Amino acid sequence: MSSDQLPSWRETPAKGSILDYIAAATDSGSADFVEESERVAVFDNDGTLWTEQPMYAQLAFALDRAAELGHPTSLEKLHAGGMTALTDLVKLTHAGITTDEFDAVCRRWLASARHPRFARPYPAMVYQPMLELLGLLGRSGFSCWIFSGGGTDFMRTWAAEVYGIPAHRVIGSVGETEFRLGAGGPELVKDAAVQVINDGPQKPSSIHRHVGQRPILAAGNTDGDLAMLQWTAASPHRSLQLVVRHTDGEREYAYDRDPILGSGTGQILAAATEAGWTMIDMAADWSTVYPPIR
Amino acid sequence: MSSDQLPSWRETPAKGSILDYIAAATDSGSADFVEESERVAVFDNDGTLWTEQPMYAQLAFALDRAAELGHPTSLEKLHAGGMTALTDLVKLTHAGITTDEFDAVCRRWLASARHPRFARPYPAMVYQPMLELLGLLGRSGFSCWIFSGGGTDFMRTWAAEVYGIPAHRVIGSVGETEFRLGAGGPELVKDAAVQVINDGPQKPSSIHRHVGQRPILAAGNTDGDLAMLQWTAASPHRSLQLVVRHTDGEREYAYDRDPILGSGTGQILAAATEAGWTMIDMAADWSTVYPPIR
Known about the structure:
Two copies of one chain form a homodimer.
Chain A: H1 13-26, E1 40-43, H2 57-68, H3 75-94, E2 97-98, H4 99-112, H5 128-139, E3 143-151, H6 152-156, H7 159-163, E4 170-182, E5 185-196, H8 202-210, E6 217-220, H9 226-233, E7 240-245, H10 266-275, E8 278-281, H11 282-285
Parallel strand pairs in A: 1-3, 1-6, 3-4, 6-7, 7-8
Antiparallel strand pairs in A: 2-5, 4-5
Helix pairs in contact in A: 2-3
């Protein structure tokens, strides 16, 4: 195909680096050719594939859900209450409910909730350039997976459809679930006990567990993604590491070195500089940030 | 295709039930048609897809590995030592080793070890009729997954190739792994702490976590598989449940109602009888048990 595969990417080195890598990995005549069965790509979600400001979408969901359940709280109260307050919120909004019921609750929220600044539905807060990258990778024989700190059950209610990735490739933090023979038949009940917080060094462990292969491409935006990018960089194949930098206060948010939530960026930017990983400067490299609203 | 898709199955009701179900689920004109994206099939491994007698292959591996490491033990000592002895054995043979090293150790063992009665390599102890079923399901648009009590890392060293299933669809019990920047680069070190024992009611939870969809076909052979079959039977689609019965003392082992290891069969046989699930009588239904050795 001669048409532009990444139309929302400006003609900058970031785009060149991505296209060059994909061309090499998929050209059977290239020294960097990788068999299709080994073309595994892993992506962080919050801040890498969609906007994580002014708060994680899942936190906005939890606050709305708590109010709906008659126990309203706020970001301020959460900050003041620390881990206990957060655990209580998770228990209230994510536990004691079957997986089927939780799925329905999430879908209902997603249909009505709007981002406070951009007034878009949250699934429309994904980055158009990254959608194009996921599409190009899929057409190039890559299996794209998401490894996020967000909750698996929450993400799967929208990510599979929006990103065009099957549910089993959307992996996040998970709580215990209990199998029960309920009145309406067998059901899985979500428990408040957290089994895996899928961040930092846990990401390579989760990749090993869920994929069972080492990726050749990884994208992230905070220090919580560093281990995942390091793990991918140690592949025996030529690999590609992408670091999304939030530099665009007008079209998105500018918090490149001063994250107001989530983990910092000091370590990943230092590692990226040292190793020559591909930095994506949102303001400079993307001509469009969000997709048209359907 | 008019040729026999299941040549190692005799023309009995079990075969008829399987072929009838697959035909209905894949015929877009049928009331029982299921979209390809929802054709998820889950299989237990030990005793369902390969022989689990006179002991689990992974236990034979652990005993051989312990001897190789200078700490020989025996089944008798394990029985006498109870859970402590078993935990010690797992720690000795499955922990304190990187995932790459463990993979190599398993492959070495598989290349040389032989089943004590049939003198076959362990990967040749799989059931030929079940290989044919996996193949037929794959050609019929099903995604086949394994949910076993065995260790994920152990199984993936051979199961993916032997069953023709990608590594990410081979799920078992898992221990913690620790991400470490070693002398040779990033590595994952296997820990003795067990994270998930993938048996009984844990199987539906693991299916939810790894697949994110409810299966329409499940096969097992002990009470440890009952929850998985119940979960599948509650699918909104027409579903199929298969129970493998070990009735063939000559060609395999006869322990249908008296398992000498693993969990019992009383509950699953009662449930299968009540619900009319498809029973597979190895002696009666299979014309061949093991594949030719390549």
